[in-house]
Design a protein that fits this description.
This protein has 268 residues and is α/β, with parallel strands linked by helices. Helices cover 41% and strands 24% of the residues. It is built from 11 helices and 10 strands. It has helices spanning 45-52, 80-86, 103-115, 118-124, 127-146, 162-174, 192-209, 220-226, 244-248, 251-257, 261-265; strands at residues 5-16, 19-30, 34-38, 60-66, 72-74, 88-91, 180-184, 212-216, 229-234, 237-242. The strands form 2 sheets. Strands 6-7-8-3-9-10 form a 6-stranded mixed β-sheet, with helices on both faces. The chain has a 4-stranded antiparallel β-sheet with strand order 2-1-4-5, covered by helices on one side. Helix 6 (162-174) packs parallel to helix 7. It is globular. The chain starts with a strand and ends with a helix. It binds adenosine-5'-triphosphate and magnesium ion. Residues 45-46, 93 line the site of magnesium ion.
Length: 268
């Protein structure tokens, strides 16, 4: 029996001094799956993303990523840029747009960093660089079109709405041509109609581009609409997993959310 796992996390423990951010976490993602990780504030969700992208180095366990070439690599110990090159892209919980740059420029940065053009290349602008730049420009326009931001290409990011910025971050993540896209609270700060747009966009990224989606989100309506399967973290441990229906009916999950349920469903 072989399941095509894009991520395989086994017994991962991450500590910061006395704080255990991830406690013996095991989970997997199937290639092409829309998978969600939910849990109360401080549960360890972002720590998990940081561990999957080489930002944090867990003390115990293994994280295996299998890209398009079906060649499994071990993530722990790899630098973030190596993990990115291997095919793992992410967006951040707090927006990291360059607010003085336009939508176009912000996405192009993602495309160029992936092409490895670099500062020297950009300064010298030899023929190969100019060719590469043209490709980056074309790809950038394509991605802006894909996320529905083509007509706002020249708008400075600072003056975009939250929803637009969130879609732009997705475009920038896609510019690295990833196998999997990790989204850390992609709907944070958005209004209900922007949430609907984001839900449709995230599904389209998987359906049209074939990119697997790993999603952290507090908005239960969005999670339940998108996720095919989910894991629930609480105090660094996986306390439940399954389909949205299974997780919703799990008493341990209801218990974990009890204190914060009003907050979690607000605006859903
Ligand atoms: N760099 C760090 N140094 C020390 N402690 C950290 C660090 N990163 C995370 N932690 C701790 O790990 C725990 C989990 O934090 P994490 O940010 O992963 O939670 P989260 O589930 O993403 O929460 P939220 O929903 O609020 O974003 C917290 O106790 C946090 O303080
Ligand atoms: Mg977080």
């Amino acid at each position: 029996m072989s399941t095509d796992k894009i991520f395989d996390v086994e017994n991962v423990t991450l500590r910061f001094g006395g704080v255990v951010s991830l406690n013996d976490v095991s989970l997997f993602q199937t290639r092409g799956e829309i998978l969600a990780v939910i849990g109360p504030n401080g549960a360890g969700k972002t720590s998990l993303f940081n561990s999957l992208t080489g930002v944090y180095q867990p003390q115990d366990g293994t994280i295996t990523f299998t890209g398009r070439d079906a060649n499994p690599i071990s993530i722990i110990g790899k630098k973030p840029h190596r993990v990115s090159t291997a095919g793992v892209a992410r967006t951040f919980q707090a927006s990291r747009m360059f607010s003085a740059l336009t939508a176009f420029e912000n996405v192009k940065i993602g495309a160029e960093s992936h092409r490895g053009i670099g500062v020297m290349g950009a300064m010298l602008k030899g023929p190969a660089t100019r060719r590469g730049e043209k490709q980056s420009d074309a790809r950038t326009i394509e991605l802006l079109e894909f996320v529905g931001m083509r007509e706002k290409a020249n708008v400075v990011s600072a003056s975009l709405s939250y929803g637009d910025r969130r879609r732009l971050e997705i475009a920038r993540g896609l510019a690295t041509d990833p196998q999997v896209l990790l989204l850390d609270e992609p709907a944070a700060g958005t209004n209900p109609s922007e949430k609907v747009q984001l839900t449709d966009l995230i599904r389209k990224v998987r359906d049209v581009m074939g990119v697997s989606i790993l999603l952290i989100e507090h908005d239960m309506k969005l999670v339940m609409a998108l996720a095919e399967r989910l894991y629930v973290l609480n105090f660094g441990s996986v306390i439940a997993q399954g389909t949205p229906e299974e997780v919703r009916a799990n008493p341990a999950v209801v218990e974990a959310y009890l204190g914060s349920s009003a907050e979690q469903t607000k605006g859903a």
